[in-house]
Amino acid sequence: MKQYGVLVVDDSSFMRRSISLIIEKDPQFFIIGIARNGLDAIEKIQRLKPDVVTMDVEMPEMDGTSALKEIMKITPVPVVMLSNHTEDGTSTAIEALELGAVDFFLKSSLVGEEAKDETIKDFLSKLKVIANSCKVQKNEEDAEAIVDLEYIECDKKLMKRELLVIGCSTGGPSALQSILPRFPKDLCRPIIVIQHMPPGFTKPLAERFDTICNLRVREVENGDILEPGNIYIAPAGFQTVLESGKNDSIIFKVEDMKNIDSLYKPSINVTLNSVAPIFKDKLLSVILTGMGNDGLIGCQKVKDNNGFVLVEAEESCIVYGMPKVVFEAGIADDQVPLSNIYERIMLNL
To answer: Can you tell me which residues form the catalytic site (predicted)?
Structure first.
């Protein structure tokens, strides 16, 4: 049985011990070391060579985000951020994901009165997949510098696809960072993003992208009308579907939808199942890096309605899970690395 070494980074001795005890519940993990701040973490990562790192967001001397920047430059390793559910903690966690952190968990969901066995089990399961198969590359450039102001003539006669839906999970925010800011301000298509995240984190994600994208980015609200030139982030904790409205309008329906059996809220399958019959061959679906198989059923629905399915190639995926199941099911029209995703999308819009 393969074992994975974990470095636990937190300025609180209580949290270091609590997180370590949780991790060691799984016999495939062992604590290779602990670190008290970002500077300590950088030194120990280089010396101890852990398989995966859990990193506190807020720490003295050097916080988790600053440390992450250096780690991605010097010694890339899978990093899972642990955040407090506060306004500052949430926005910092979003920034960390864009910088290359592969996932994050709320501390309160793992330690304390709000902790649940199901969440801890999910944490250990994800940590195992990340340690075993996660690929992290050196961060050689500032992703925010990627801006493409190319002018796209808005001629509906030339449109190939009228809606782009992007689904992603583990590693998604950093992948989105390399795509969304490149869409030109005159793009005459709407874009919907379904990113697996805990409730309360999709709105800050939308606000963050709104500051660096040419298109307007916002979290979807129930009753919103789908309009070209907007990027819509599906809210966490709910399902997002689209319905035909009056005067040829398309309306968002955002609800809990307890009758739908899905591990994910939002679910890529649920959204794609609703839009595929509406847009048919005018729909482009993209599945990026992520753990699990969400998107498989939805992409089949896209193909049943003659839409186009594009998936990220294994070589660039942080976790080659969701794209893999779609590709191996034979329903992907193309599979390309992240560096070519934007160009491939634009060829189909």
So the answer is: 169, 196, 294
* Catalytic residue check, 56: no
Residue 139 clears pLDDT 60, i.e. is over it: no
Residue tagged active-site, from 83, 169, 178, 267 = 169
Q: Verify whether residue 109 is a known catalytic residue.
A: no
pLDDT category at 114 given cuts 50, 70, 90 is confident
**Residue of 178, 224, 294, 316 marked active site:** 294
In tens, the pLDDT along 253-305 reads 999 988 888 889 999 999 999 999 999 999 999 999 999 999 999 999 999 99
Annotated active-site residue 294? The verdict is yes
What's the pTM?
A: 0.87
161 touches 283 (CB < 8 A) = yes
Q: Which of 11, 26, 103, 196 is catalytic?
A: 196
Domains in the chain (CATH in brackets) are 4-133 (3.40.50.2300), 143-347 (3.40.50.180)
